């Protein structure tokens, strides 16, 4: 079931905001130690992770010009991932796809939503990246609900994006396809990151620019090719987005700028929250990026230098600037939790034990167990005895014996029971073995993909492991499936 890569770790790193804005060189060293090496996943791994590529897990879709779908998923070790699945006609050359994916997968920066793996089986072509839980720049800039993005945060987005481009350039990946506000994602700390998907060369049927032609670099319209200078032009269009809070065509914006009335460009929500000098400097930088002649545009390193001097409120974490609680909002505030959900949130293992014991094995109904007559007469009886002894120990709260007996039942291989995995999971939790518990909770999910208890136990294991963001997502899934079950 696991990926063909180094042994997985359950301790997903927690990035922390530094007291000052980080330079790209610092980020590279940090990330090398934080993420697993790039590896190839089996199609079955990714099918399980995305719950059969369920439409409920679709994050984004693209049309005929660049046919692909991005799904949210979770691996067996609890890591959240984004899975980009291309259509069958994309990337016909297997070797080209693998070479490209591995080259991008070697990059590691805290400014990127890094590529951590791929899958190339038969006609399937999939990319696997870190999952970013806090939406896109487009959502926060153009479609905000609670508050407009603050000036200091807009400056930070511009800098972090420039640092991402500088890092990629320094690693020989200066070309980025279709840089736009949908390609900038926000991580669990609400720090902006550049999606790694745009670093892949476009597939046979893809286009480098899927956005409106009014926003594409002039030279791309002439030659159909992306150059490093084209990427800087697109960066300029994003500076306009950050200034205005709208997606303004560059030609219109440049006309306003030439008329020396740049305040007409500024987002009205920012009025009184920035100095004219800062606004003028950002407009000047955008104008340089949008020069018609590619050679007159600045490079990524020059952009970083210019933007560093403009930063504001560098001591304030991004989640505070964005107004998004970081690990402090209780899922119970947003969800109507069941008794099981409340017990998971409290990590009340005694209450979970009572609930599991009362539920019995009713959730095993419908699980296919095809057994030969020979199995019934020999091995089956031993297997059933192991389960019976395990249940007796589980009721008596003798969790060491319960684990041993349930392990014999599972290793017997004659029957599959999600409830046994759930009970052994709790036994591991009671025995202070949360990593083993998480593996069992994930296995219960594999056997019974929409069983709320499997998600509840994942949440409990993740809470105990200190992976609060992942635990809260599992709790949301548990509540969703519980509600779905109650409606049926």
Automatic annotation (TrEMBL):
- Protein's recorded name: Uncharacterized protein
Q: Which organism is it from?
A: Catharanthus roseus
Taxonomic lineage: Eukaryota, Viridiplantae, Streptophyta, Embryophyta, Tracheophyta
């Amino acid at each position: 079931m696991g990926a063909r890569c180094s042994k997985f770790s359950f301790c997903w790193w927690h990035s922390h905001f530094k007291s000052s804005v980080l330079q790209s060189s610092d980020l590279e060293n940090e990330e090398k130690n934080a993420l697993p090496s790039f590896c190839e996943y089996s199609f079955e791994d990714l099918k399980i992770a995305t719950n059969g590529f369920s439409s409920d897990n679709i994050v984004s879709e693209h049309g005929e010009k660049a046919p692909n779908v991005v799904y949210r998923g979770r691996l067996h070790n609890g890591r959240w991932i984004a899975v980009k699945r291309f259509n069958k006609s994309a990337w016909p050359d297997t070797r080209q796809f693998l070479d490209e994916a591995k080259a991008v997968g070697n990059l590691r920066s805290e400014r990127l939503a890094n590529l951590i793996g791929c899958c190339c089986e038969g006609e399937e072509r999939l990319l696997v990246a870190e999952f970013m839980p806090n939406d896109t720049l487009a959502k926060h800039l153009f479609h905000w609900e609670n508050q407009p993005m603050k000036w200091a945060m807009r400056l930070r987005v511009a800098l972090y994006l420039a640092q991402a481009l500088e890092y990629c350039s320094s690693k020989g990946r200066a070309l980025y396809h279709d840089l736009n506000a949908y390609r900038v994602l926000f991580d669990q700390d609400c720090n902006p990151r550049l999606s790694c998907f745009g670093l892949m060369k476009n597939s046979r049927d893809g286009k480098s620019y899927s956005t409106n032609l009014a926003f594409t670099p002039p030279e791309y319209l002439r030659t159909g090719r992306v150059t490093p200078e084209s990427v800087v032009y697109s960066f300029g269009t994003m500076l306009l987005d950050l200034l205005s809070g709208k997606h303004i065509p560059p030609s219109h914006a440049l006309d306003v700028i030439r008329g020396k009335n740049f305040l007409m460009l500024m987002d009205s929500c920012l009025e009184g929250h920035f100095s004219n000098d800062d606004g003028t400097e950002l407009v000047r930088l955008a104008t340089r990026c949008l020069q018609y002649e590619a050679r007159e545009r600045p490079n990524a390193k020059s952009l970083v230098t210019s933007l560093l001097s403009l930063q504001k409120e560098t001591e304030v974490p991004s989640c505070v600037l964005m107004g998004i609680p970081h690990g402090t909002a209780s899922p119970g505030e947003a969800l109507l939790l069941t008794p099981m959900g409340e017990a998971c949130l409290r990590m009340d293992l005694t209450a979970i034990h009572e609930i599991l014991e009362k539920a019995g094995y009713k959730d095993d109904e419908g699980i296919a167990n095809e057994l030969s007559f020979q199995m019934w007469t020999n091995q089956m009886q031993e297997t059933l005895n192991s389960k019976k002894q395990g249940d007796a120990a589980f009721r008596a709260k003798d969790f060491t014996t319960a684990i041993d007996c349930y392990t014999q039942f599972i290793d017997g291989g004659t029957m599959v029971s999600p409830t046994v995995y759930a009970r052994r999971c709790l036994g591991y939790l009671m025995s202070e073995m949360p990593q083993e518990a998480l593996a069992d909770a994930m296995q219960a999910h594999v056997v019974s993909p929409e069983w709320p208890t499997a998600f509840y136990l994942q949440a409990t294991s993740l809470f105990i492991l200190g992976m609060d963001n992942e635990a809260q997502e599992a709790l949301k899934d548990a509540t969703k499936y519980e509600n779905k079950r109650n409606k049926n």
